Amino acid sequence: MRLSQFFIQTLREAPAEAEIASHVMMMRAGMIRKVAAGVYSYMPLGLRVVRKVENIVRKCMNDAGAVELLMPSMVPAELWQESGRWQHYGKELLRIKDRHGREFCYGPTHEEVITDIVRNTIKSYKQMPVNLYQIQTKFRDEVRPRFGLMRGREFIMKDAYSFDVNDEGAQVSYEKMRVAYNNIFKECGLRYKMVEADSGAIGGNFSHEFMVLAQTGEDAVISCNSCDYAANMEKAIATRSTPPTGGRDQGRGDKYEEVLTPKAHTVEEVATFLNVDVKSIIKTIIVCVDDEKYAAILVRGDHEANLVKLKNYLGAQTVEMAAPDMIFKVTGSPVGFSGPVGLNLPIYADLALEGIDGAVVGGNKKDLHLINVKAGRDYTPTVYGDFRNAIVGDICPKCGGTYEIARGIEVGHIFKLGTKYSEAMGAKYLDVNGKQQIITMGCYGIGVGRTAAAAVEQNHDEAGIAWPLPIAPFEVVVVPLNTNEPEVVSLAESIYQRLIEAGVDVIIDDRNERAGVKLADADLIGYPLRVAVGKKSIAEGLIEITTRKTRETISVNKDNAAKSVIEILKGL
User: Which pLDDT score is estimated for 357?
Assistant: First the structure.
């Protein structure tokens, strides 16, 4: 491929809306171009990366016994109404009507469509197990699309669905996908971690996320320093810890006291004003459950409430922070002064609060806190449970080690769906005894474009991208530094041709540009190897080969240049 004939337009400056490395560099490298908020065109270089990720995904899915198909992106409302998600999915679901007034949605995921296919196709246990997958464009109407391909509205996704006769069979299918996903991200050349995760809007009772580790990752990855336990923040178990003592009065006396705390409503401000440890303060968070009921979560002052854990505990569709006006309505106080004493709401207290003595809580009045508060005497929790985010140093529930936290980018998610969709939509089969049974399902997704963007977040420097070899747009760029020198051009062309003959994925930068421009573009685009041919190559017979990731440059004899490139590629 010749760069002069390839549609590449690099930018010297990043667009104003680009915030993170992958967004900045993929825009500057001419890999993506914005069409609308959260909607991008994949330019030729970016498309080559995406296709390479897709090919790795296809290979590993096919090796695991999955079969590819392609479903429509527009889905009739009737299917989503059967599963119940039409009513519950939320505003992220783009709903439209055709000319006849029939409702459709632009599929953000395809559980309903695939279940409809299977219920009309599979009739007997003899036809299972089955695993079907597709690679397709999806759409989710994100309220705040940002970060380029990392959180767009339109995106390319691989989604797969398994169908089994029972839970035991579903576990086998799940394990095959777990192995396949590990293989996919290894073959993409990424550093990643598999973590336990919440199933979210997809549903099901068991899931794992695959996180590409990067400092810029949006998600916190909790892992044990002694064993293989790992989970995302929504799922990580926060074990019971020894409750602190040392509140204002350390639990002495028969009753709490009211203390005016003007201009102090954050935990830090209250702790400073009352001269107490933040661990002796109880935060009271008012939440709205399923848009109609209200409740309170209690957590220690140095902890953060986990709304997903409460949602799962209650079996609710949604648990969200209550709006300020509703907090005032149910507590009588503005934000920052809520407390459990006298509160007429269900109270869900985190395990770390069990046995706490002499606590400080909000007084449910502006500028008022209560000290020397004791559970059981002054308020009674509805239940104690794990309702907080895990933190560094928490005890691992699996081995007793301690938690560490890294940043990660979710690129894949696998679910054991059970019978959530098959039961709702009547996907059944006849068992060995001729009796009807409900099919057991699994679901497995990978964000293809997001995987490419995550690779950039993990592999870049100030000059540009440093692609892992398996998903680089081209493996090698040959750069003739002096296009006005016929001998330089001829030598570069001969090396380029030899690399093509050897099956190397190579491009030659034959543009009539200054050497500095070519070298800067090579660094920005991130070809794993750069072969520079200049006047020195003619005078001394030496070619410079630079490895993008390490910046290491070696000089080799011009007659051995192609052979040397091939040997270096084997080691990348």
Answer: 80
